[in-house]
Fold:
Amino acid sequence: MQIKKSSEIYDVVIIGSGAGGGMAGYVLANAGIKVLMLEAGPFFDPAKDSQQLKWSFESPRRGGNATRPMGDFDAAYGGWQLEGEPYTQKDGSDFQWFRSKMLGGRTNHWGRISLRMGPKDFKCKTAYGVGDDWPITYDEIKPYYDKVDRLIGVYGSMEGMDNDPDGIFLPPPKPRLNELFVKKAATGLGIKVIAGRGSILTAPLPGNKDRGACFFCGQCNRSCKIYGDFSSSSCLVIPAIKTGNLKVLTNAVVREILTDNEGQVRGVSYISKDDMQEYQMNAKTVILAASTCESARILLNSKSAQHPNGLANSSNMVGKYLHDSTQGGTAVILPQLMGRDRFNEDGVGSLHLYAPWWLDSKKLDFPRGYHLEIFGGMMMPGYGGYFGFEGAVVPFLNGYLPGADGKMKPGGGYGLGLKNDYRRFYGTMAGVGFHGASTAKEDNYCEIDPSVVDKYGIPVLRFRYKWGNDDVNQAKHMQETAAAMLGKLGGIPLLKPQGPETNYGLDKPGKGIHEVGTIRMGNDPKRAPLNKWGQTYDCKNLFVTDGSVFTQQSEKNPTWTILALAMRTAEYIIDQRKKQNV
Amino acid sequence: MNRRESLKAIGLGTLTAGSILQGCKPGENSGSGADVQVATTGRQDYEIARDKKLVADTFFDKHEMATIAVLSDVIIPKDTISGSATDAKVPDFIEFIVKDEPEHQLPMRGGLRWLDVQCLNRYNNAFVDCTAKQQIELIDQIAYPAMAKPEMQQGVAFFNKMRDLTAIGFFTSKMGINDLGYKGNSPGKWEGVPAAVLKKYGLENV
Structure:
């Protein structure tokens, strides 16, 4: 066995092809810079590889989740656990880490909910008295949000809200029937419900001939064959390859980033899954975008004489301030919809209706807040779809509601009556999800497990993550909102109210798949690994562009901010190259 | 990586094309889709290999499959709108899903045996050899959870699972999806809920 060392020197090597790596690669390649992108999984082109428009019966498991945790058609090569690539826990933590190893990463299956953070979100400490302020303001990042909107496309409605800034919007999709019932209930509680905001081309994207407009199958999680929604693979990496300036090396698992005698980055060491050989690659500049936790892992594993506790970690903050959003929600069967009219109600595969945080947290026992995501409608009958919601409960609920003949009968049963019950319940479910802001804390972190390696011999991550009182109080408030909404909605709740014994239904950390913060930006090099450009304080030719750069998350889903910051960092690199600083 | 090349490398190249062609035309599938095709496009190598192994393996024996067929048709019989569970090849789906999700194997195998022993004690025959009247007499004791006697609770648990798997298998088949009246999965323009439907529920101004 030997390490194969390349003599070629790339201008920029990008580690990771998700939202952050894809955007950096797109901007740099279009500026004429020679870029090599390393992706740990295989090539994935939604045009060829998407499971879009398949019927449930084309899956032997009918869309079930035995091999893909979000269903057989979901466009994620990965899951909560990967064979031979474990992660471990500390102090009784149970952090959940969703990884997707493929070109485009998790952007192939994500919810496309595309929200800007607001002015107060960037100044969390000043505005709310918790966490830390970012080293940048909304005004500094606004031009990049605007450019991302124009480049990728996002639908929404102009609302003029202070901390939920409008973008440059395509027309929003109309709501589904069930969603209107939820909107009515929320409105009755004084919650302002607006159109969702999602990166789906509800109309042709001006100036773009490579992407088709949405045809409303509602299957964005399968990725889109006509590139009608945003995936990093379809919208950034594949177009960047076409410039001739970006080369992608797939199945390349990065072991560590290499440094020279001065402690500056000189290249990358990786293992190829194709031949299981070890390689080294030379780079003038490295951009790390392997995902929030994986990027921290790579830095912490990149130890040298100049960087004894990991690369770019003189602050000792790499891996710390890991934070995910809080989650809650409820769902009901609406009896008034039993036997409802059938029509194609697929809509888009993202949010139709959404409610930004609507209260003043100064009057509450937790800082900041959460938003509402409304869902419901007739979905393709599938194992885990219809049969994860209303279908699964039919043999119980048919004992609580009168039959088509108006008579009560015992729950359960079989035969023609039961068959008819499945028809009557179809399309009656509606619900709401809550996604909240959690404050970053130094003692929620990932670190290198001192005694465990993965199948490539790379030391693995160990997690330490505990929800705080603010998070639990927020979850309690979500339960109260859910109860109030159920009161207005009527119907039969599908989820039990949760109390203190379950932290009010607060999900395990990581389950929101909004984890950020492990390589944060900050003005003080002693307290943060990155400056406000996403450049490491310790190595001027090392940058980070994924979710790890977040100083502090908000209740807005992070992807749109990752894209805007990655674009900004890439433009900064172009500028610094011109000045010969990197 | 080129996926087709990698498939060839593990010896699946020739099977790939046929599976893709058939897998891409839902309209030409049989009533159930239960003649299981292993899809390869956009699938990871381990998924393809796993699916092929599951399809090749057999879990239930002939007697168990015959019992499952009778039970599934009792649960979902033919009516004027659609066929029965066996018309939609639900037993084939159940055979696959217990291999795919092994947690069903013990409750299904044990439950089928429980059912046969109940029938042997009462009627001197295995379930499939009982008269239709006897079969229903027994099913009536396990099909209504809130009414079942304590000593029949194991049967209730089995029937709950059997009913769920039957309903999933039926209503996710082509026949069952048509039966439910799902109109989507067809490219078009979503213009919102039809005005007449909005009016029916008084939601015109929401």
Remarks:
- Chain B touches chain A through 75 residues (CB under 8 Å).
